[in-house]
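Handout, section 4.2: multi-component inputs.
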Amino acid sequence: MIYTIRMGLLLREAVSAPYRNLVTRPTGAAVRTRIEATLANTQCLTALLDFSDIELVDLSCADEVVAKLLLTVRTAYFVVLQGLREDHHEAIDHVLRHHRLAVAAVPPNSHAPRLLGWVAPDAREAFACVSESGPLDVTGLSRDLGWSVARSREALDELTVHRLVRPFGDLYYPLPTA
Amino acid sequence: MTRVIEVPTHFDDRSFDTFAAGFGEWPPSEKVLVDARATQWASPYGLIAILTAGQALAEAKREKPLLTVPTSDEVKRYWARAGFFNQAAELFELHGKVPRSGATGPSDVLLDVTPVRASEDVHGVVHKISEGASRILHGELRLEMKATLRFSMALSEACQNIVEHAGTGGWVAVQAYTFRRRLGRRVVVIAVSDAGVGFRRSLESAHAKRFGDRWGDGAALEAALIQNVSRFRDPGRGQGLAFIKRFLDQWEGKISIRSGTARLSIVPPWDEDVPMSDHLPYFPGAQVQIIIPAQEEKSR
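Output:
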């Protein structure tokens, strides 16, 4: 199951004002705390953070909200972003690369996520393959990409560590996005 | 005794050191009179530098300084429309007739002189700038549409430096005007200034040791602007200035930071400034200026 969190709503609660800009570290920390509290009260394993009604995300807030959330919840939840505009991508990608983190982001009018942040090139290619093909095991990925089994396993292991695929048995599932 | 400090006739980042030198030993022991009667023009950097001086004197518990307003009605009206006198009245005993500020500032004032004391103020600044920024940056300076949001991000990060590092409040102002002599093009200028502890003291506990004898205002600016370090141990810190530099490089913009007795600039090809100036007259806190020029036809 997916739990959708509207970032605009959390922002308005955090700053008690009708602003649509996710800016400043204190605001980011307040929003992240609310996300964590919300997730702690659900049984869902995947959090879909919806940025549709956010105007601007600055670097400080991207760091406080997205990077620190990924660092905090790394062992508990899968996080997917949606409703991002190109400039949101830029800020979030910048801070995640700095931390060597990555997150899946669903572009508007699409269910195929793209990766923001840093993963090795093989892991990025494997992510695209799993997202497009659906659940794959190591052999399936090797076949689809023409890789050795060891190379495929390494790429899928990296995606697992970053919580960018869901391993179940021998299969690696794409993150749910709808 | 009163120390008279003349505001330069043309007051911007280039004439700033003359203004700073007027204060002598900081804080000056005498009562201060800031004399702007002969001033013909002031950039946003100049306007908020005057306020910073007033704030620093107040924080040093000195007698309230005097400020004689410009003689020129045109200059006075412009300063009033930029919101300068509203803020100055709290810090200075104003002498001379001050015009009432109009309901709205001139169209090239993107952001009035605005105090920044807490993160809520940064929200207000970013909210306020969003409409005018697009008109100026895209309409006049021919920057791509997404530049507006990058510009707002830069403004936000620059203002947050006050909240996070200065230990006191500061000021921000944003204005568009034409750099006739230096560039011959329209520019947008963000000016941010505070009367706080400055870069050297802010970074000292975490970074002075590795610089050894070199540590000072210049080394602290180099650590912050070139090496992107922060006083916080949080590994996510220090990215704001790095991002600002990246997009300024793309737009041939300029950033300069003055703190204490040093000034460090990332100098674009159109400017003849020196990257580092040291042993300057002391001035409290930190002053940041970001200049974004209109894009030439070839770089569109």
